[in-house]
Specification:
Distance between the termini of chain B: 40 Å
Largest interface: A-B, 33 and 33 residues
Strand order of the largest sheet of chain A: 1-2-4-6
Strand content of chain B: 25-35%
Largest sheet of chain A: 4 strands, mixed
Structural class of chain B: alpha/beta
Order of helices and strands of chain A: EEEHEEHEHHHHHHHHHH
Oligomer: heterodimer
Number of strands of chain B: 10
CATH class of the largest domain in chain B: Alpha Beta
Number of helices of chain B: 9
Shape of chain A: elongated
CATH architecture of the largest domain in chain B: 3-Layer(aba) Sandwich
Chain lengths: 377, 249
């Protein structure tokens, strides 16, 4: 039998008493015996008391202890007496310590085995609560903004400038790269189709309109959601973990005014500017492809855009960027404030900030597009 | 109980870049004793502990555990030696994304070849030793500070280390929890024979559990006293030591 090799104990039964000889090395490094065969033995022989013999026991540690605890627990359940006196001194003390504080009633949890309906219910309740939190947050934020407009908000200008710098100029490199590439891709994809009609010159319209109305704002918003939105959630979340938010509250300073408003304003200011930059970089990318691959000179491209892409398209794009800025900052700060008190919840806050931002951006874009359609602009 | 040397520090100097924190430290910790590193705030107690557990390399000097110089061997040997010692960090340092049971199981599953069911049993046993029976499925964020500390102690003992390093065991605990923790540490030492190195400035702990202590001073930048705490209080002539131990200004 594999269970009894190597032999760590020998059993001797005399008149309902089971004498357990513990032998050899009982530390982690060696294979520890399983308990079930011994328990079967105890049940089979109708044992009423257990004693130990430990003179041949060499090294031992928690491996032995868990074995003993399992044995003692089983014996207690079956009203079998256990005589611990011949165990090593240290083991006896440890057993006393382990049984000193009885298990607190109701402390143990049953985590698994929740029915599906319960899970669905819990998730629904959680979603409802989260939705309520969000509405409360938006309401509070509106109040704080009102305070700001009336000049009553506690907003540190140095904070605001720092946030503007972190969100704006530092993002220029990545915006340049992404926008130029998006412009080039638009130009290339469009040109292949337009060439079938000999209408390559309309690449300019396609790229100009696409960047100005949609792609400029969307690309900026996505970059900022990944760059600033997640950072806001992580910063504010960490402050939550360190009880800094509580400290602010007890000082009578609203975290909304102190932390959220500077970030919100910073994105409101920088996003439209970044969007303008992004639009021009996209149009430039389109120009490079047109000139390089499709024989349209820079000047032709420029004239075409000037004639066909009206100012209103740029204005719609820039306004969108402003709206997206508000959404990204709000989602980031909201998730940060909602953060729990552990390291992993900060990570979760950052992730959900980005996801929330992206969803809000796309939904808002769809709504704005419909409104523009209805208004005919 | 054999009283051979377990840990020895020879002429240790600790420094951050060019700033010397402590120098000329010489002491040895006997097997099975509770050794206290005491001193005022900012004197380098915790830095010394970080040196002893191999997180920081000494500027000069040697640290020997079981007569092996931990900074004179390969990184692998050092890692192996250090993983055999247990450390209880000041705030517990439990992994927040894991339950208490998983926290204790982690070193066991990494460093032993035990089967999962056995590891779970050992984790439960360790928790019962520190009075947290039944709390396997709790996350560190769901329990109180004192419980976190005891759970940290359970994790530090997961591998049945022969040497246990404890940083400020009673910091942030109420007097009763602190006393219970001290008693637990004593009990563990007595039953397992573990050597315990403890950093603390709590007089209560120093007198109730300490066998030997060293006193680090910020200005002298070295240890200015060593010996049994009660004896130090009676016999020391150094006013800095007396003031500290008798809490006078």
């Amino acid at each position: 039998m594999s269970e009894s090799v190597p032999a760590k104990y020998q059993v001797e039964t005399t008149e309902n008493n089971l004498l357990l000889h513990l032998v050899g090395d009982w530390s982690y490094s060696t294979d520890l015996p399983a308990i079930p065969p011994l328990l079967r033995h105890i049940n089979k022989d109708k044992v009423t008391s257990v004693t130990f013999h430990a003179e041949q026991l060499q090294a031992w540690n928690s491996g032995l202890m868990t074995f003993l605890i399992e044995l003692i627990d089983h014996c207690e359940q079956n009203h079998i007496k256990v005589d611990k006196t011949h165990l090593p001194q240290g083991a006896q003390r440890l057993l006393n310590l382990a049984y000193a504080v009885p298990e607190r009633k109701g402390a143990r949890r049953t985590m698994l085995g929740q029915p599906v309906l319960t899970k669905i219910g819990n998730v629904t309740i959680e979603m409802h609560r989260s939705w309520n939190d969000m509405l409360t947050f938006v309401g509070d934020l509106c109040k704080a903004t009102g305070n700001l407009l009336r000049g009553r908000a506690r907003l540190r200008t140095s904070d605001l400038f720092y946030q503007i710098e972190a969100a704006g100029p530092s993002a220029l490199m990545i915006i340049t790269l992404i926008s130029t590439l998006v412009g080039m891709i638009l130009a290339f994809v469009g040109a292949v189709q337009l060439r079938l009609f000999g209408a390559e010159i309309f690449i300019a319209n396609l790229v100009g309109l696409g960047m100005a109305r949609e792609m400029g704002a969307i690309m900026t918003a996505i970059i900022m959601a990944g760059r600033s939105g997640s950072a806001y959630a992580a910063q504010i979340g960490t402050m939550q973990v360190n009880e800094e938010i509580d400290a602010l509250k007890t000082m009578g300073i609203s975290p909304l005014e102190f932390l959220v408003l500077p970030r919100l304003l910073a994105l409101c200011i920088t996003m439209p500017l970044l969007c303008i930059y992004s639009i021009f970089m996209g149009i430039f990318g389109g120009a490079v492809v047109s000139a390089g691959l499709f024989d349209i000179s820079f000047y032709q491209y420029y004239l075409q855009i000037q004639d066909f892409v009206e100012l209103k398209h740029f204005i719609i794009g820039i306004l969108k960027a402003g709206v997206f800025g508000v959404l990204v900052a709000t989602a980031g700060c909201f998730r940060g404030l909602q953060c729990g008190r552990s390291a992993s919840s900060v990570g979760f806050a950052a992730t959900s900030a980005v996801v929330t931002s992206l969803v809000l951006i796309i939904v808002a874009d769809a709504i704005i597009t419909v409104i523009c359609q209805v208004l005919g602009v | 109980m054999s009283r051979s040397t377990h840990l020895q520090v020879k002429n240790l100097t600790m420094a951050y870049a060019d700033t010397v924190i402590q120098q000329n430290l010489d002491f040895c910790v006997k097997r099975g004793e509770i050794f206290i590193i005491m001193g005022g705030s900012g004197c380098g107690k915790s830095t010394l502990l970080r040196h002893l557990i191999g997180l920081m390399a000494p500027a000069t000097g040697d640290i020997l555990i079981d007569d092996i110089n931990i900074w004179d061997t390969t990184a692998e040997v050092r890692a192996g030696m250090i993983s055999r010692s247990g450390v209880l960090y000041q705030s517990g340092a439990l992994f927040s994304s894991m339950t208490l049971g998983e926290n204790i199981a982690l070193p066991l599953s990494e460093h032993t070849s035990l089967v999962t069911s056995r590891i779970e049993k050992i984790a439960s046993y360790k928790l019962s030793l520190v009075g947290l029976a039944g709390f396997e499925d709790y996350y560190p964020s769901e329990i109180s500070g004192g419980m976190r500390k005891r759970a940290g102690l359970a994790r530090a003992m997961a591998l049945d280390p022969d040497i246990l390093f404890i940083d400020e065991p009673s910091a942030g605990l109420d007097p009763i929890s602190a006393k219970l923790l001290d008693r637990l540490i004593l009990e563990l030492r007595d039953s397992l024979g573990t050597t315990i190195v403890m950093v603390t400035h709590e007089l209560e702990s120093i007198f109730s559990v300490g066998d030997t202590a060293i006193f680090l001073d910020t200005e002298a930048k070295t240890m200015i006293a060593s010996g049994a705490p009660k004896q130090l209080l009676k016999e020391s002539t150094d006013p800095r030591v007396i003031n500290f131990l008798s809490r006078s200004v």
